[in-house]
Structure formats: structure tokens, C-alpha cells
Write a structure and sequence with these properties.
This protein is 43% helix and 19% strand. By secondary structure, the chain is an alpha/beta fold. The protein folds into 4 domains: 2-124, Immunoglobulin-like (Sandwich); 158-243, no CATH class; 246-326, no CATH class; 338-466, Glutaredoxin. 33% of the residues are buried.
Length: 470
């Protein structure tokens, strides 16, 4: 997410008045042009926390006019048309035209594969893109020189690796300094520092150098502005580049941390985390544990958050993170799942399945594996022959034509089948990551397990253990 944000951001000066922001754009190079682009508003850019916003309607030629709403500051959004995802930061009263297209690589997952974006017209992000492109060229030149030296080729007349690195780093710093001086606002400046710190980290700079960059950036946390700091596009992200992963340090005393939790002693907690945190403000300690909750959640991490009274801003963010992570996992309540029936009527799984248990096979047309699993799915249903289960075939097909293909493979009219389309909301609700996939819901419409096997991999035996005895 961090790299996507750096590559796709927009910057600008906040206007003195708030008005409706409308972004013009177009989808290009799509195999199938979707009629809808789903939208998430990102609440905390350094965390995977967002909320759904109104969708974007797309014309047949791929063009769209996106009514973003009233923006006071540049705001980060995620646009989704599964399997593709695009991260964009929109300025108030945006004037540039947004172009979005699939990624260069074949999509590796059902949802969230990164696509490509470009803002047409005068736009500050082009300078940021050029800086990152230069940074990539620097890395490639250093890597190429290192490979030649390892292989013993072309040594004569070449700079030493250290000289080459110093020269390229000096050129990067010169370009970066000009951009930082000319930055049009705080958002642009934050992201410039993010690029610089990311480059320094990737080039193996030590902790002392990273600490120096952090001090120069002046992006430090101030207690009174904690929520603004967490919501900003670059401040917390930069902090994580410098201090992230603190729990991997050999000086962390986990026995003392457990003891501090038992005693609910925050001074002991800070001291056990290592020398850096012993005298750190409590808000910095909260930042450290928020970083761990993002990257390396654990029962102990949860216990720390439940034991100590961290500042309200951090507690709010942690709770949102926990809520977001629970979606689609075992025990999560999925709520109503609307769908279209074969007769084109609108309904829902809950209305059409009155049985307390629901076993769902999610699939798409065109998959040979899905066809085979669908046949075995029906065999498992016949073999179990239980009246307390609703056996559901859930179509995620992108359009009505593909849905009709899925429908034509229906073996019997008794098969309960419905179409939800290419909906990322439903994919998230059900925890769908691949196709085909099995999801089991209990009588309270909660996901029973997030690792249910396919019919060919033991679904029958799994259900015998899972379901109550009749």
C-alpha cells in the first residue's frame, strides 16, 4: 500500500471554501469494462482501515464522472473493480483527469491486485513519479555494477562501487532538495520524505542515519495533534520506516513485558521494550504498539491494548483496525447478502435459505476447476441429505452474459443458485480470496471456519465433524 500511495498521490492547496469535488476519468485496456467501480475512503493511510463510499458509474466507453463529495484536504481513496485495485489521493476541486488500467502482471488474487493509474494534465504527481523513477534507476545501476564485479567482468576503468553509490546518492539528494523546497503543501512534503526514507531503508542505511532523517523531517508526533498525525498521508508512514519492527530488537525483554502487563505498570512496559522507549512519551509507546498490531498481531499485543490506557486517538485507531481485520474471518457476522435469482428477481441468501446452516460454493464461469467442484459439491449435498443445510452456489461473474453461462450449467432446478456480481463488499464479507471457495455460515449467519476444504479436498468429512448431530 505504501508504494502504491507514493506512486499515485495528488497534492494541492486546500481552497478557502468547500465545494463538491468531481473527478473525470476513464478506464482503459480492460478485457471487460465494468459498469461500476467500487470506492473505499481510506481513513488511516498507514493502516488497512477504510469505509465504503458511493460507487462510480462507468459508461460503455469506459469514461466516468466521480462525485467525490466535499473535501477539505487531499483524501486517499481505493478504487476497486476485482481483481484490480487503484490507490488515489484526490485534491479538493480536482482538475486533473484520472486514467486507470489493469496492472502489468496477471492478477494473482481475487481482490486487491494493484492496477496502474495516471493523472492526465498538469499535475504535481508527475514530479513525484519522476523522482521515484530516478530512484529505481539508481538502484538498478548499483545492482548491475555489483553483479559485474561479482562475476569479474568489466572491472577496468569503472568507478568503485562506493564511488558510484556516493555519486548517484548525491544526484538523488540534489533532485530531492529542489522538490522539497518547491513543495506546494504539507502533503507533498510528507510524501517526499516518505520517498527519501524508503530509499534510505532499501539502501541499507543504519538506524543512526534513519534517526537523523526523522529528525530532519520534523514530522514528529505531538500529543495534541495525535489523530491528525495518524490520519495524515505520510507522518505515521514515515515513523514506521524509521522505528517500525522495534519488537525484533534483541534488547526487547519479553519476560519483563509480560510482567508489566500482569502488573499493569506502564513504566515497566516502556523499559522492557528497550532503551529507546524507556524515556519516550506515552504517545510514542502507543505508536510502537500500534505498529506491532498492524504488522505482527498476537495475543500478547491484544493483551497490552486491553490492559493499558493508551491515548484515545490511538485506541480509536486500534479498535477500527481490529474491526476491519475481523471482517470475513471465522466468527464474523456477514449480515444480509443480496443477490439476483435465475428469474432475475432481487432477493437475498437469507430470504431464500430458511435452513439454519448455509454451505456456500463461490465460483465464476469459465473455470474448469469450478465446474468439477460444483459437481462434487452437489454429490456431497446428496450424500449428507440434511434438511438443516441450504446448499448455495454463489456466482461472482462480472456480467450478465457470464452469469447466464454459470446458470446454464445448473444440473437441477433444486440447486439454490444466485448472482452477486463482481462485488468486493461481498467478497470481503465472506472472506473470499480464491475461486472456487467454500464458506459455511451457522444459524446466526456467522462464518464458522475460514479454512473450509473444497469438495474434492474433504468437505464431506469436515461437515460431519462441524455440524451438530441430528
Amino acid at each position: 500500500m505504501l508504494r502504491s500511495l507514493l506512486a499515485l498521490v495528488l497534492f494541492g492547496v486546500t481552497p478557502m471554501f468547500s465545494q463538491e469535488t468531481v473527478v473525470s476519468g476513464r478506464l482503459i485496456e480492460m478485457d471487460v469494462t465494468p459498469s461500476i467501480i467500487h470506492v473505499k475512503k481510506v481513513l488511516y493511510p498507514a493502516l488497512p482501515v477504510a469505509e465504503w463510499a458511493p460507487e462510480i458509474l462507468v459508461a460503455e466507453n469506459g469514461s466516468f464522472h466521480w462525485s467525490v463529495g466535499k473535501l477539505e484536504t487531499p483524501t486517499l481513496f481505493e478504487l476497486l473493480s476485482p481483481p484490480w485495485s487503484w490507490m488515489v489521493l484526490v485534491r479538493p476541486d480536482e482538475q486533473a483527469v484520472l486514467e486507470i488500467r489493469p496492472g502489468r502482471q496477471v492478477a494473482s488474487r481475487l481482490l486487491g491486485s494493484p492496477g496502474l493509474t495516471r493523472w492526465a494534465g498538469a499535475h504535481p504527481s508527475t514530479r513525484m513519479d519522476s523522482l521515484m523513477a530516478f530512484q529505481n534507476q539508481v538502484n538498478n545501476q548499483i545492482a548491475e555494477s555489483l553483479v559485474l564485479r561479482i562475476s569479474g567482468m568489466a572491472m577496468k576503468g569503472r568507478d568503485s562501487l562506493l564511488d558510484l553509490s556516493d555519486r548517484l546518492e548525491h544526484r538523488f539528494d540534489s533532485i530531492w532538495n529542489v522538490m522539497e523546497t518547491e513543495a506546494s503543501g504539507s502533503v507533498e512534503r510528507q510524501l517526499l520524505w516518505q520517498i527519501r526514507m524508503t530509499g534510505a531503508l532499501n539502501n541499507g542505511k543504519g538506524q543512526a542515519a534513519m534517526d537523523s532523517l526523522w529528525q530532519q523531517s520534523a514530522l514528529e508526533l505531538k500529543g495534541a495533534d495525535a489523530m491528525e498525525w495518524l490520519e495524515s498521508p505520510g507522518k505515521f508512514s514515515c515513523w514506521r520506516l524509521v522505528h517500525g519492527g522495534w519488537w525484533r530488537d534483541a534488547l526487547v525483554d519479553w519476560d519483563k513485558i509480560n510482567e508489566a502487563v500482569f502488573l499493569a505498570d506502564r513504566d515497566s512496559l516502556s523499559a522492557a521494550m528497550g532503551p529507546l522507549w524507556k524515556a519516550a512519551p506515552w504517545s510514542e509507546v502507543a505508536t510502537a504498539w500500534l505498529d506491532k498490531a498492524i504488522v505482527s498481531p498476537s495475543p500478547l499485543t491484544e493483551l497490552v491494548w486491553n490492559t493499558f490506557r493508551f491515548p484515545k486517538a490511538f485506541l480509536s485507531v486500534y479498535e477500527r483496525l481490529a474491526e476491519q481485520r475481523a471482517i470475513g474471518q471465522s466468527g464474523a457476522w456477514v449480515g444480509t447478502i443480496p443477490w439476483t435469482l435465475p428469474n432475475e428477481e432481487l432477493s437475498s441468501i437469507q430470504d431464500d435459505c430458511r435452513q439454519p446452516w448455509k454451505v456456500i460454493l463461490a465460483l465464476k464461469s469459465g473455470s474448469g476447476l469450478a465446474r468439477r467442484e460444483r459437481e462434487m459439491f452437489n454429490q456431497v449435498a446428496e450424500k449428507l441429505d440434511r434438511r438443516d443445510i441450504c446448499w448455495v452456489v454463489l456466482s461472482l461473474d462480472e456480467n450478465q452474459g457470464l452469469w447466464r453461462e454459470t446458470l446454464s450449467a445448473r444440473r437441477t432446478l433444486d440447486e439454490t443458485i444466485g448472482w452477486v456480481g463482481n462485488s468486493p463488499q461481498i467478497m470481503e464479507k465472506l472472506g473470499l480470496s480464491v475461486i472456487p471457495q467454500i464458506v459455511v455460515l451457522d444459524q446466526d449467519d456467522r462464518i464458522v471456519s475460514d479454512d473450509t476444504p473444497l469438495p474434492s479436498q474433504g468437505l464431506h468429512a469436515h461437515l460431519l465433524k462441524l455440524l451438530p448431530e441430528r
